[in-house]
Amino acid sequence: MVSEQQKKILVIEDDEDIRTIVVTRLKRASCETVVAADGQDGLRWFYGDRPDLVVLDISVPVMDGWQVLERLKEVS
């Protein structure tokens, strides 16, 4: 049986309670998680770590989710 590599997921969410719930569920699904509390930090993590998936809140501070999404589309 071939073991599947653990997926790395970036969670960009400013609400600590929601972030905790999302990260807990992803870890139960055997995913590695990286978290950012604002859009700018999220982009830094993305450029440095290249996750398999990004969970993005639209209303995060510093750089909102729409701006982050535009930047992600430019490099995808």
Mean pLDDT score: 93
Q: What is the molecular shape?
A: globular
* Name given to the CATH homologous superfamily: Response regulator
Class by alpha and beta content: alpha/beta
With helices defined by DSSP (H or I, 4 residues minimum), what is the helix count? Answer: 3
> What's the CATH topology name?
Rossmann fold
Helix content: 40-55%
Low-confidence stretches: none
Number of domains: 1
Distance between the termini: 32 Å
Quote the beta fraction: 15-25%
CATH architecture: 3-Layer(aba) Sandwich
- SSE run: EHEHEH
Computed over alpha carbons, the radius of gyration is 13 Å
Structure summary:
This protein is α/β, with parallel strands linked by helices.
Description:
With 76 residues, the chain is of the alpha/beta class. It has a single domain (8-75), classed as Rossmann fold (3-Layer(aba) Sandwich), CATH 3.40.50.2300. It contains three helices and three strands. The chain has helices at 16-28, 39-49, 65-75; strands spanning 8-12, 32-36, 53-56. It has a three-stranded parallel β-sheet, with helices on both faces. Strand 1 (8-12), helix 1 and strand 2 form a beta-alpha-beta unit.
Write the layout of secondary structure elements.
Elements: E1 8-12, H1 16-28, E2 32-36, H2 39-49, E3 53-56, H3 65-75
Helix pairs in contact: 2-3
Provide the descriptors you would attach to this structure in a database record:
globular, Rossmann fold, single chain, 3-stranded parallel sheet, alpha/beta, 76 residues
